[in-house]
Specification:
The protein is α/β, with parallel strands linked by helices and 251 residues long. The protein has helices at 11-21, 70-80, 93-102, 116-131, 153-165, 222-235, 245-250; strands spanning 2-6, 27-32, 40-42, 45-48, 60-63, 84-86, 107-110, 136-143, 170-173, 186-193, 199-206, 211-218, 241-243. 32% of the residues lie in helices and 27% in strands. The strands form two sheets. It has an eight-stranded mixed beta sheet with strand order 3-4-2-1-5-6-7-13. It has a five-stranded mixed beta sheet with strand order 9-10-8-11-12, covered by helices on one side.
Length: 251
């Protein structure tokens, strides 16, 4: 399977390159990176600055880049009828609508975190939120100092999984200007940015007599890359639609 990698020169992009090169059934078709130069190549692979400049074909796209690429990437994917895995975070509502519209024509996997561990954690959180209704819930997420969006897409994904079990839950982003007692239905979000932290997430369930903390720590970016690669292989057998890592795990 010939795969285009968007965010080719990025940190996660490099992990995707490694994962693809180590898979005997896959190869890199080309790369896309905002930092690419004209007629850029890296280890024999052509790297384009944007999709408007792409003059090659591929059989699938893995995107870990920036929301600025979404529209042109989706246009290319729909035109060439290729599946897309989107691991880019920081998408706004308009971006997500474009993804949803494109998924009517091609298969798309949209996930804030393509790692398998964190996606297994979602199911556990649903059960905890349902059973521990008297516990206060707080989410603490930590990332490197280069991450622009906050809270992280993964933190929002963790919250969404709990909200499925408890529709009354709502997010509370920080408490700097909130001069009141916390409400049972709120879920606090707290963001830490520093150093080279890859991706740490703690979900705290605080009760009157005990505290439970469910944690996930990504040790390398390889977890995202391996999940995305498995995702693009899954999409290859789908006609169209919007998918999640849960679909991939279920097979």
């Amino acid at each position: 399977m010939k795969i285009a990698i968007v965010g080719y020169y990025g940190k996660v992009g490099k992990s995707v390159i490694k994962a693809v090169n180590e898979d005997s059934g896959c190869e890199i078709a080309f790369g896309v990176s905002r930092s690419a130069k004209e007629n850029d190549t890296k280890d024999g692979i052509r790297v384009f600055k944007n999709f408007e400049a792409v003059d090659m074909k591929c059989e699938g796209i893995i995107d870990f880049s920036h929301r600025d690429n979404i529209e042109s990437m989706l246009d290319y994917a729909v035109k060439n009828n290729v599946p897309v895995v989107i691991g880019t975070t920081g998408l706004n509502e308009d971006d997500e609508k474009k993804v949803e519209e494109a998924s009517k024509n091609i298969p798309i996997l949209l996930s804030h975190n393509t790692g398998f561990g964190i996606n297994i954690m979602l199911g556990i959180l649903k059960k905890m939120a349902k059973e521990l209704k008297e516990f206060d819930i707080e989410i603490i997420e930590k990332h490197h100092n280069r991450k622009e969006d906050a809270p992280s897409g993964t933190a929002k994904m963790l919250f969404d999984s709990m909200k499925e079990a408890r529709p009354e839950l709502y997010p509370q982003y920080g408490r700097d200007s909130v001069l009141q007692k916390r409400k049972k239905e709120e879920v606090g979000f707290h963001s830490v940015r520093g150093g080279n932290i890859i991706s740490d997430h703690d979900v705290i369930f605080a009760g009157e007599d005990d505290v439970l903390t469910l944690s996930h720590q990504a040790l390398t970016d390889a977890s995202f890359a391996k999940g995305a690669l498995r995702g693009i292989k899954y999409l290859k057998n789908q006609k169209n639609g919007l998918f999640s890592m849960e679909d991939v795990i279920k097979g």
